[in-house]
Amino acid sequence: MPDLILADLSGEIAANVRRALAEDIGSGDLTAQLIPEERQARARVITREPAVIAGLAWVDEVFRQIDPRVAVHWEVADGERVDADKLLFSLEGPARALLSGERSALNFLQTLSAVATRCRRYADLVEGTPVRLLDTRKTLPGLRLAQKYAVTCGGCHNHRIGLFDAFLIKENHIAACGGIAAAVAAARHIAPGKPVEVEVEDLEELDQALAAGADIVMLDELSLDDMHTAVRRTAGRAKLEASGGINDGNLRQIAETGVDYISLGTLTKDIKAVDLSMRLQL
């Protein structure tokens, strides 16, 4: 599946921000009213730890929706590696708007940068191999496209976006359909032209998926030896995706088996927000 690009997400970004501001500000920022309405201010946002940055457009949209008089000046770009204490961006405009937008803006930036940072770490581990690291649907509800965009900022790639853009036939689907061949045939009938991927648990099921004409075969927790065998046996007839039981210790070895893809829920699921800090200057 193609990777998301920022140009595809303008409506999604605006909607993400509207929900975030409604959740945080609600009927109005009470504490910001302590500051005179006409007071102008500046602010600087730094990262307290090394990171790969993602989410600039979400920050811009936060302040655009709160008060378009706020000017955002970026010192970094999406996908850029930064060291601790790096200035990420500065702000100038009405003090109330800067303070009201702070938390929502930083929430987006710290979360999406966490995804990009995690992805860059894993991409570095397989550098020099042709494998593509793929994300999954294990994303925060309401932020799937944002997180999947952040995945690309970290040098990894997007799997299917949801349940609507590709088939992924797993054990329960196979059982309900009466076998791999029947499931693949039904998929071709339901949505011709959509990618059909089949999850298999052993080499016998791999053979069945290949015979059925699957576009992609997901090797679910196969041993390294079986992955090597699967690559030889498939011989380019389908793309192969390794999944399950993958970690820092075995990722490189799996990449070197010759599989085309490795999918990792950890790219979006097991993340820790990047530590950011904003300081206001009145």
UniProtKB/TrEMBL annotation:
It comes from the Bacteria. Residues 115-279 form the Quinolinate phosphoribosyl transferase C-terminal domain. It is an enzyme of class 2 (transferase). Its EC number is 2.4.2.19. Substrate binds at R103, T136, R137, K138, R160, K170, E199, D220, S243, G244, G245, L264, G265, T266. Keywords: Glycosyltransferase, Pyridine nucleotide biosynthesis, Transferase. Pathway: Cofactor biosynthesis; NAD(+) biosynthesis; nicotinate D-ribonucleotide from quinolinate: step 1/1. Residues 29-113 form the Quinolinate phosphoribosyl transferase N-terminal domain. It holds the Pfam family QRPTase_N. One of its GO terms (cellular component) is cytoplasm. InterPro entries: Aldolase_TIM, NadC, NadC/ModD, Nicotinate_pribotase-like_C, Quinolinate_PRibosylTase_N_sf, Quinolinate_PRibosylTrfase_C, Quinolinate_PRibosylTrfase_N. GO terms for molecular function: nicotinate-nucleotide diphosphorylase (carboxylating) activity. One of its GO terms (biological process) is NAD+ biosynthetic process. The keyword Glycosyltransferase applies. Involved in the catabolism of quinolinic acid (QA). Belongs to the NadC/ModD family. This is nicotinate-nucleotide diphosphorylase (carboxylating).
